[in-house]
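Sample intake sheet
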Amino acid sequence: MGSRERAEDTGTDLDRQDWGATRSWVEKGLSEAEHIEKVVLLRGGWTSQMRRLDLRGPAGRRSLVLRSFVKPFFVRHAEGLLTREATILRLLGDTDVPAAALVAVDATAQYCDHPSLLMSLLPGTVRLGDAGADERAELLARQLVRIHRLPVTTQQRPRTYQAWASPERVTPPAATERPELWQRAVHVIRREPPAYQGCFLHRDFHPGNVLFTGTDDDPRISGVVDWVETSWGPADLDVAHCSTALALLHGVPAGMSFADRYVAAGGTLAEDGTAHLYWRLLDALGFAPDAEKVAVPWRELGRLDLTAGVLAQRLEGYIASLFSRYA
């Protein structure tokens, strides 16, 4: 795990009562005479609270990252989510995917104040600005191809993907002037999912979960984080999720071009355009009506321009472009 673009120093966090048990759990696993020197709250997360723990001991300084689920919904599902992430981090340790190393996990809060996972700190930062977005998108496409090609045994295969949208839960933007477009999109995902060739999916692959080093002109991926939703399913679904995020962050053309970048990097998508459209819309409709859910952490990382209105307009334009190309 790596740091987000902005971090808030929370030195008083050392003495907070709601993490005393968690701190004791962490310290029991440290090397002799090593202690937590500082705690930094990492910003930009949505599902969980992320802390960087700066440690000091006889051998010098190092840092770890602590993920804790504190929201009631995610606490209820924490055992499955954190157990899955721990399993995946162990698996990725033997691959060339730049993922954090697992240190410890307490998925049921048996010892911690909240369900928690402790991992290594990766170098780099999340970059969401428009500057250098094209260069980063090329790297994202290549990295995603490598993830999808990971060889796993039947026993190592993660769970089958879960859809994040359903026809009855889609809420179009209140101010839309194109209700028929939304009705058409919902109609597409009413059908049975198309047949697919399954592969290893990150399932939440987007710019907010990838760390970069280097300059905007010469960026390099230094880490891929947040493996709690790792699944088995169609490559189209991972491509769809990253495409939607790019459309919201940088505009519709950025979202529409990512699939082409993925194929150019050696990836394989559904040959049938209607099948690919299904997966793209299944993801995009999960962001309706205005993608405010992801906008909050993005604004925390500096994208104050991503208002609900801007995102709703981009999402609708993206859906229209998907029909223009694939229907």
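Comment: Confidence is low (pLDDT under 50) at residues 1-12. The two ends are 39 Å apart (CA to CA).
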